[in-house]
Amino acid sequence: MKLYLLLLALATPLVLAQSCPSATAQSGAAVPRVVELYTSEGCSSCPPADRWLSSLKGQPGVIAAAFHVDYWNGLGWPDRFSAPAYTQRQQQGVGVNGSRYAYTPQIVVNGRDWRGASLPAAPAEPARVRLAWTRMSSGELRLSAEALPGAPARIQVWWARVEDGHQSRVKAGENRGETLSHDRVVREYARLPAWDGSARGDWTVPVSAGEPGHASRWMAVAVDARDGAVLQAVEIGC
Question: What's the structural domain count of the chain?
Fold first, then answer.
């Protein structure tokens, strides 16, 4: 009996560590504020913006993501969180979101270039798209989307997997000698095919284990394909 209790005590933390907080996550009636930060460990102006993004954790009605771009990598320090796809995403937003060029750190809130000292107010209009995550028994994630009254004719849905609690000791470049902290770091990202909303959208999203010690969250965002304005967003953790 003592051996059984000992084995049970040892096993319990493992089960808890692998459990996920929810099997489903559905968007509400309101549209959250979706914050995108375009940043780089090679940019000396970026650490304050990274800290600001970390301060948003836990704020209700805010979903944030830090996209690390790769165009600073040639100046001495390759940012391990960067990817060409994140740079491409930023460049695709130039002009559409109100910016005239790509720069770091750049903050985009609900599809619009934002340079204010604090976040703008949450959108007042009701959501025009419903989004939901479902965790299948196989471990896969299913993402569904439904157009609501007032939805545009073409809708773009994108998703990202983000991680918190990262640190880097930078050994070269503009931030040489600094220890940088990062939250909401995008580790995977994909844009889904444009959708006309006439039927329910349903997609399978691959699930990877992520980096040990850093729990993942998956966020999904629906935008107006014409101008990138955010129509709805939802996230699920694991």
Answer: 1
